[in-house]
């Protein structure tokens, strides 16, 4: 039977959990995730985990943060004085914003704290600094 390898398009079902058992994502209630191995469409550790699997095979893996969304970087957090925040935006906890950059793509930040004086913006991915557990089933190699 064929094994998934770099360049193959695969369809998988997965459930992702954190160390405390809380689920952060799952494909079980929707169509399988389809992506090309080695194309950079998923986190590196996930790509590696699916490589070598055969259709119908399932496995459990733990992907360290370095192979997922990286370490949490304190320097990616900024506290903006409230009077410097755009008037046309009503800030809410958990709100994602795109901050334009002079060069390159905009940076996505999440509002993590709001006070009368300031708003805290976090540019880290919500799963940065966390090891991720996955239950993966290779549905098919397309």
Largest sheet properties: 5 strands, antiparallel
Morphology call: elongated
Please give the share of residues in helix.
Answer: under 10%
**Structural Rg:** 19 Å
Mean pLDDT: 95
Could you tell me the number of beta strands?
9
Q: What's the helix count?
A: 1
Domain module count: 2
Please identify the structural class as seen in this structure.
Answer: mainly beta
**Ranges with pLDDT <50 over ≥5 residues?**
none
Describe this structure in words.
14% of the residues are buried. It is elongated and about 60 Å long. The protein has two domains: 9-70 and 127-141, Chitinase A, domain 3; 74-122, Thrombin, subunit H (Beta Barrel). The chain is built from one helix and nine strands; from the N terminus they run E-E-E-H-E-E-E-E-E-E. 5% of the residues lie in helices and 39% in strands. With 142 residues, the protein is mainly beta. The strands form two sheets. Strands 1, 2, 3, 4 and 9 form a five-stranded antiparallel beta sheet that branches. The protein has a four-stranded antiparallel beta sheet with strand order 5-8-7-6, with no helix packed on it.
């Amino acid at each position: 039977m064929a094994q998934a390898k770099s360049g193959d398009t695969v369809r998988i079902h997965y459930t992702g959990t954190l160390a405390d058992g809380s689920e952060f994502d799952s494909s079980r209630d929707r169509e399988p995730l389809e992506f090309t191995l080695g194309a950079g469409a998923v986190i590196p550790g996930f790509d590696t985990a699916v490589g070598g699997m055969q259709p119908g095979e399932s496995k459990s893996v733990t992907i360290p943060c370095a192979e997922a969304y990286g370490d949490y970087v304190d320097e990616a957090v900024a506290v903006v004085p409230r009077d410097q925040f755009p008037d046309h935006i009503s800030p809410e906890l958990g709100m994602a914003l795109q901050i334009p950059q002079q060069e390159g793509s905009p940076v996505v930040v999440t509002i993590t704290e709001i006070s009368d004086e300031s708003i805290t913006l976090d540019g880290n991915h919500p799963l940065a600094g966390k090891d991720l557990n996955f239950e993966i089933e290779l549905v098919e190699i397309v």
